[in-house]
Amino acid sequence: MRSVHALIFDFDGLIVDTEWPAYVTAAEECAAHGVELTLTAWQGRIGRGDNEPWTALLDGIVDRSQHASIDERRRIRKDVLTDAQPVLPGVAELLEQAAGLGLATAVASSSSLDWVARHLARVGLGDRFQAVRTRDDVVRAKPWPDLFLAAAEALGVDPARSIALEDSVHGVTAAKKAGMFCVAVPNRITAGGDFGAADLVLGSLADLDLAMVLST
Known about the structure:
This protein is of the alpha/beta class. The protein has 2 domains: 6-16 and 86-215, Rossmann fold, CATH 3.40.50; 19-82. Helix content is 37%, strand content 11%. It is built from 8 helices and 6 strands. The protein is elongated and about 55 Å long. The chain starts with 5 loop residues before the first strand and ends with a helix.
């Protein structure tokens, strides 16, 4: 039987689908300026904390003095779409299972604390995690392991006794570098990536049989 003390969740695309609005709104702005932003090109950004501003895609097309206003217009549209996104299937149920089994829970996200905390509160999960660690807490975000290690440290658990839940290839890389068992749940943005490094790949967190994982 696997000895597990904690579940450590990614946020974007795993707890709430914030990633589709992010892509759609960036693609809309790019298209308005004659630039095609393919899903394949956008996928390389998912799960990383060191991306250059998306407006760099418009370099040579739009004067940089206009980037801030373009980014603000896109942010407003993105926030509207994101605020309509519910908790993804299986998240609440998995948190209930974890609580019943005495497992600690944390979030490890390459986004900012303001972003993560706002949306956790919006969907009613603000008090369901014992720790939240974001890019604000580490020098290097994913695909480096620092965020997962920081989350485990905050919970007081051994990373090797933790299960990481991820939706991106970069997130899986970070989790495995941290020495964690990793469950990957690709979404409509990240599907098609190479999730071969994950220990388990599922279509939804609702498909995760936690008891089975713990018993193996």
